[in-house]
Design brief:
mainly alpha; 2 helices; two-stranded antiparallel ribbon; single chain
């Protein structure tokens, strides 16, 4: 697994702008995981990971790409999707 290291000014590692789970988050999930967690407990963890992802992106100045509408030429950033409960191989 690749770690998020220092980032040069204006450059972001490929894929980090769209990344939902950073290595630090996966490490934290492994620390918190128990086989007997209920779905309610798993879902209750999500806000922690949302906050951690925002903090990581702020610390590393990671921003989502800016898109241009082909029809009107307007510029904008896509909505950041929430951290979700899903199966991840290898966690």
């Amino acid at each position: 697994m690749r770690s998020v290291g220092p980032i040069e000014e204006g450059k972001v590692p490929a894929g980090d702008a769209q990344r939902a789970w950073f290595p630090e988050m996966i490490e934290r999930l492994r620390e918190l995981w128990r086989p007997d967690l209920t779905w309610d407990e798993v879902i209750a963890l999500l806000p922690r990971f949302e906050e951690q992802r925002l903090r990581i992106k702020e610390e590393h100045n990671i921003r989502t790409a800016v898109f241009t509408c082909k029809t009107c030429g307007a510029h904008g950033q896509p909505q950041v999707m929430p951290v979700s409960v899903r199966c991840r191989k290898g966690i």
